[in-house]
């Protein structure tokens, strides 16, 4: 089993990252380089979280071997206390051979740092650029990232000057590497505590509120009102941008040097707008002969960028509106079925997507009723209580993990108890649950936050390239300090435990933070205590109240604006529900009519077609008899005979007056009497 656990987790994490990226990204429409870069960033970050428990168990086994092989006189005090008998020091099932983990962590860490600090910021600017050539996009990306890169060089230079001036340190390459890692981890830890403080409170509260059907329905109405406003704004913005594109397309003709740029912009427009605007290829007037003010390439680049943004935003709001409607309809169905005596879940509308037959077989209406109306609320309540317990343990450990005598961090107590008995499965499970919960609190906040319309991770393949790349940057910057914080909570980091023990392979790659004492002994220890203040602020919704005061409507139960938006959203959902019901009733009536009269209509249609064929064959036979004689005598071809029949015009003997003008004697010409000649007052088929 040596190395098998590592290989299995590598494969599993890859498919997990691929599944999440498929949910948020669009593999068909987005650029392959964007998909690959985002997938690599997510994959490396998730891989660190899943592999770190194996590193911890392997390190504890190596400490055990070192303690057993060392004599009491040669061993350290910490080794004597940990030294068990030789029978207890057995190899764990997930043991990773020596030399593999340092190389693995070095490759993973430096690749993620290269992505987050160099490649992904450049690709962000490249993806948002409206340039029409690769060179133009690269130039724009370099200009936009000049200030970005300069800022981080300034921070690194400040750390470098501090170490160079301090006489206690001899500046070496390993210390420079440690300074760079410390600078990156300091920035990541600053953001980590902010996101962690929000997630520790919001995740248990969201699951507790998930058990309240009325709460979820009111919040859905609130979201519907806000989304309708955003949807209308996106439609209006798209109309304005398309109007500008139409004007530019009319001004820049086919022979203008910038026509290729206009064609590129038109390809990014929706199909209905492309058909409406066209390409004006019927106008062959030279652009030099007109005195119009033509837009330059810079203005077209700006317009191209606006088109990409407006089209993506419009498509995203349309998809989100349909998803929100389905969610609102389902919650209303749950509220109706809760008082049902039949205990059968009845849907107002049938699912538009075909359901799996296996799911239909097991997830019957009775099972669905028991789950949605009876079991699911209690399941969410129990899960919320468990998550709340985990959150309290994390907050307590964040405030006390620096204490080694006595050990106050609960995670460190659990790991040390398992280390004394060398129960490696318990060690790995405890480490995995701890770091997994921390990761969920941090990563879920990354998926939830929204910075206006510039950064927004929308599910159902509606996330743009800029947001995907930005999320990859955040993950790569948050994961290393998250792992260091986890090792500090469990006292596996020698900087925290103050023990001369073998460090984990991960901390050996990070280097000794003693190079910067004010960071190792100050910032890394006392800054995580701010998570208590952030949890209190999140519990009382201080951030939500501040945003509400600034004009950004947030869901608050005691706000008059929230009540108005709930009423507005409820009316919107009711209107869409009536529209959907009318559509389904119309489809049902057409289906019933087709099932009832379909066969009769088919037989009648077949008889009519058969009669028409007979009449047409009889008419052709009678018409061809005199023409065949005429053709033989004059030597006309078949083509002349067909043209002669086509040129012959029938006379209308039922007309009120005869017009001598041949141009006004067409059979379909409209007459002053308000009728067509083919629709005369006499009954045409009376003589049939």
Automatic annotation (TrEMBL):
Coiled coil: 224-251
Segments traversing the membrane: 6-21, 33-52, 103-126, 146-165, 177-201, 378-396, 425-446, 523-542
Annotated region described as Disordered, given as residue ranges: 576-688
One CC-aspect GO term: membrane
Record keywords: Coiled coil, Membrane, Transmembrane, Transmembrane helix
Stretches with biased composition (Basic and acidic residues): 582-617, 635-644
Similarity-based family: Belongs to the LIMR family.
PANTHER family listed in its UniProt record: G-PROTEIN COUPLED RECEPTOR-ASSOCIATED PROTEIN LMBRD2 (PTHR21355:SF0)
Protein name: LMBD2 protein
Protein's organism: Scytalopus superciliaris
Lineage of origin: Eukaryota, Metazoa, Chordata, Craniata, Vertebrata
